[in-house]
């Protein structure tokens, strides 16, 4: 019997690998495409698709928050490429005919609030009937400082994250009644739920990077966001740049209140929980030091080294995290 390949059987990475042959070499390394315009400004474009029961659910997320999340998630990819100005978005919606206008109105109220917070306007879109709710967003922005590419990491770089991780996953766990730790304070519960429902694209870090760049330092930073998990983001930077990444296990970016909790999965949530939408950067140490000094939420969590040189690295960095035996978000 002939086995038929499906998206589920080949997986996301193989799908992306096969699609890459239809584009110029390296074109699909990032989540955005950069087009050279006639002016010094460069246009940045990103598209994301959000499917009900895969990316959002009315059981855990209100329509206003769904609207915010789909815009914030798409804009986060712009920030991860160095975008510092949002131009606008297009939104295409598929929904059953039984979907209430109230749901649509509240969703659009949420996405409008996100655009008001980070800039840009609703440029257009499309809609169609279907069996399930699907929201497709395309965002456009511009780069006026410097670009971030996943393949710009170099051996010796610091690996820096723009903030703590695992809080969004804790929020989802609370909403799904997965945790019953009485030591989780009311404030932490609300922070976690808000982190899950209302993520923030980190455009502010792009501006800080520009402000603190050491004198005479060329612009070179590898970057992505941690929407699919911190571990996966570091893997992408290292693989795209032909490097290996060493992570200091004592420097995992827990939120202070969360680090003290007796949660069995909290380290997994930090590394693989996803949807934190923080920037993950690989940059020269002097620039990394300046960034940490300018923003106390940023943390150094490791270093990049040359491929196949792990054993040569000083013992002060604890270990290379294996690619085996971990869970991650899967699109198929």
From TrEMBL:
Matching Gene3D superfamilies: PurM-like C-terminal domain, PurM-like, N-terminal domain
Xref: Pfam families: AIRS
CDD domains: ThiL
Keywords linked to the UniProt accession: Kinase, Plastid, Transferase
Gene Ontology BP annotations: thiamine biosynthetic process
Organism field: Paulinella micropora
PurM-like N-terminal domain location: 30-143
Positions in coiled-coil regions: none
SUPFAM superfamilies cross-referenced by the UniProt entry: PurM C-terminal domain-like, PurM N-terminal domain-like
GO molecular function, one term: thiamine-phosphate kinase activity
Methyltransferase recorded as keyword: no
Keyword DNA repair attached: no
Protein name, entry field: Putative thiamine monophosphate kinase
InterPro entries noted in UniProt: PurM-like_C_sf, PurM-like_N, PurM-like_N_sf, ThiL-like
Upper classification of the organism: Eukaryota, Sar, Rhizaria, Cercozoa, Imbricatea
């Amino acid at each position: 019997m002939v086995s038929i390949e499906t998206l589920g059987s080949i997986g996301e990475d193989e799908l992306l690998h096969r699609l890459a042959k239809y584009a110029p070499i390296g074109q699909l390394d990032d989540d955005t495409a950069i087009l050279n315009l006639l002016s010094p400004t460069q246009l940045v474009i990103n598209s994301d698709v959000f499917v009900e029961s895969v990316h959002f659910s009315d059981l855990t997320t209100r329509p206003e928050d769904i609207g915010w999340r789909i815009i914030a998630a798409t804009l986060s990819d712009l920030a991860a490429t160095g975008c510092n100005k949002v131009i606008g978005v297009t939104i295409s919606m598929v929904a059953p005919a039984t979907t209430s206008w109230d749901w649509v109105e509240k969703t659009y109220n949420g996405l409008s609030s996100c655009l008001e917070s980070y800039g840009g306007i609703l440029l257009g879109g499309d809609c169609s009937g279907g069996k399930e709710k699907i929201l497709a967003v395309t965002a456009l922005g511009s780069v006026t400082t410097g670009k971030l590419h996943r393949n710009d990491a170099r051996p010796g770089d610091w690996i820096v994250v723009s903030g703590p991780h695992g809080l969004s996953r804790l929020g989802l766990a609370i909403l799904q009644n997965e945790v019953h730790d009485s030591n989780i304070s009311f404030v932490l519960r609300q922070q976690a739920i808000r982190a899950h429902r209302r993520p923030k694209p980190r455009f502010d870090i792009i501006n800080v990077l520009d402000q603190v760049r050491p004198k005479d330092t060329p612009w070179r930073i590898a970057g992505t966001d941690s929407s699919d998990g911190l571990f996966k983001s570091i893997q992408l930077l290292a693989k795209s740049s032909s490097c290996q990444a060493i992570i200091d296990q004592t420097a995992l970016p827990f939120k202070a209140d969360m680090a003290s909790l007796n949660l069995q999965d909290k380290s997994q949530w930090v590394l693989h929980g996803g949807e934190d939408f923080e920037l993950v950067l690989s940059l020269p140490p002097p620039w990394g030091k300046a960034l940490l000094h300018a923003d106390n939420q940023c943390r150094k969590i490791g270093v990049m080294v040359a491929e196949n040189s792990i054993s040569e690295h000083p013992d002060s960095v604890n270990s290379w995290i294996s690619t085996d035996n971990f869970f991650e978000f899967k699109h198929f």
